[in-house]
Amino acid sequence: MFEDRLQALVEDLRNLPAETTWVEFKKNNYTHQLIGKSISALANSARLSDKEVAYLVWGIQDETHDIIGTDFEPSREVVSREPLEMWLAKMIDPCPHFTFYILATDAGRVVLLEIPAASHAPVTFNRQAYIRVGSATTLLSDHRDKESALWSKIQAFAWEKGIAKHFQSSDEVLDLLDFRSYFELTRQPVPGDAAGILQRLSDDLLTSPDVGGRWKITNLGAILFATALDKFEGIDRKAVRVIEYEGKDRIRTKRRSTGNRGYASGFEGLMLYINRLLPLNEHIGQAFREERRIYPEIAVRELVANAVIHQDMTIRGSSPMIEIFEDRMEITNPGPSLNDPQRIIDLPPRSRNESLAALMRRMNICEEQGTGIDKAVNAAEFFQLPPPDFRIEADNMKAVLLAPRQFGDMTQVERVRAAYQHASLKVLANSKMTNSSLCQRLGIAKQNAAQASRIIKDALAAGLIRPADPDAPRAGYVPHWA
Q1: Are 129 and 123 a contacting pair, CB within 8 Å?
Q2: Which pTM does this prediction carry?
Q3: Are 244 and 312 in contact (CB under 8 A)?
Q4: Which of 65, 149, 376, 455 has its CA 20 to 30 A from that of 184?
Q5: Which residues, in sequence order, are CB contacts of 468 under 8 Å at separation 6+?
Q6: Is 377 in the same domain as 266?
Q7: How far apart are CA 265 and CA 360, in angstroms?
Q8: What is the pLDDT of residues 383-416, one digit of tens each?
Q9: Cis peptide preceding 387, ω within 30 of 0
Q10: pLDDT at residue 12 greater than cutoff 50
């Protein structure tokens, strides 16, 4: 299959009417400096042209695009006693994962260098950035308009648009992606033929046309709708992990599981699995007793969805993780929060994965933008749980749900955090926190209202809250940012 894709790719490039800013043809000109400058120029030009990759091709006549063959052998080239590829990797920054391919044809040998488009910053060679202008390679700094446009394109680049699989037939795409879940979750009728299905998937950026009439599956399509994540190299490392421990530490693992379905098609199954692991707590209602999970389902759902949506997909070998302990539940995702964890309740979330977030919201897998965390914190308040803890640990964001505890068993840090979160929810509801409302939140009896007063005093001293009106002490309290 790979050889077929390479042949189809070369034919598509040959069928271009002329050299483009993201394709360059050579015969036997393979000086090391030229290759380095071309990688920089083509990577930058590809991003500017909204192309995923660029190509430098040897063995094809520039004017006619006829195959004439080349004697260039990349693996034999040495620069200052270093293999060519190693030397290029040292001279290029940030270095894209470029790859040399060799295709033997009846008309001659073709060497193709595939270069991913610039993704995080303009690609430089020997500390200089280059760009293609027409068929010429020139310094990017000589073209300020293109430099500005390139930075704009780079800032808009998203991991979701990357390619998880190339050169797939229609049947292969429909086997690899759970397209039925896509249509069910987006509430669309399933088209009557494969062409219609693939067009709809392409409209939502889950697939895109490839060379030779084949298809590409994007990272977005794979991560959301893979029938099996382990069929996508690299994407499989993003599977959600669930670990249950005995006790309050990580010494004894009770069970562990790693998902293998896409986030969207497998989300309800993931939630069912997590809920089955959560212990039950007896609740006494007005007429009868009933057993409930110790953590509110809406809180668990929103925090898991939040971890999936807002993770940093570019961190390799790391994925969302749900850990269940005797006294808490920790939900961790790669990448720190783009908002201050203290402001995670009131500020709209800033997502690294906008297409993923928008589609997950459209499929009702998570709440509308900016309301999910509010609902999780509000649910903890409603059931008088200790306040959730949101914190950054190294390069990860962690949300911690704490099991039910009486007020007397909460730490002072938890009580102050509860006051801050309560004040935040109140102001978002156009209200104010009072001594009385905090008593209700923490389950403090009226005769012990002085305990709430001490917590408010500590929260004021910590700078987390402030009086709503300094001249009217009974006006209540608001978070420091209000």
Answers
A1: yes
A2: 0.80
A3: no
A4: 376
A5: 432, 475, 476, 477, 478
A6: yes
A7: 11
A8: 889 999 999 998 899 999 999 999 999 999 999 9
A9: no
A10: yes
Q: What is the pLDDT of residue 370?
A: 56
Q: Residue 206 carries which side chain, given as an amino acid letter? A: L
The tokens for 161 are 């648009």
pLDDT digits (tens, 9 = 90+) for 312-357: 888 878 899 999 999 999 999 998 887 888 888 887 777 778 889 8
Cβ 321 vs Cβ 241: under 8 Å:
yes
Q: Which of 328, 416, 359 is nearest to 224 (CA)?
A: 359
Point out which residues pair with 129 in neighbouring strands. 124
Going by C-alpha positions, the residue among 147, 149, 197 that lies closest to residue 177 is 197
Q: Determine which helix (DSSP H) or strand (DSSP E) holds 265, and give its type and residue range.
A: none
Query: How confident is the model over 266-284, as pLDDT tens digits?
Result: 999 999 999 999 987 655 4
Element (H, E) at 65: none
**Residues 392, 267 share a domain:** yes
Pairwise CA distance, residues 3 & 301, whole Å: 45
Domain boundary among 356, 387, 405: 405
Report helix, strand and coil shares of the chain as percent, to nearest 5: 40, 25, 35
Q: Which of 347, 378, 405 is the last residue of a domain?
A: 405
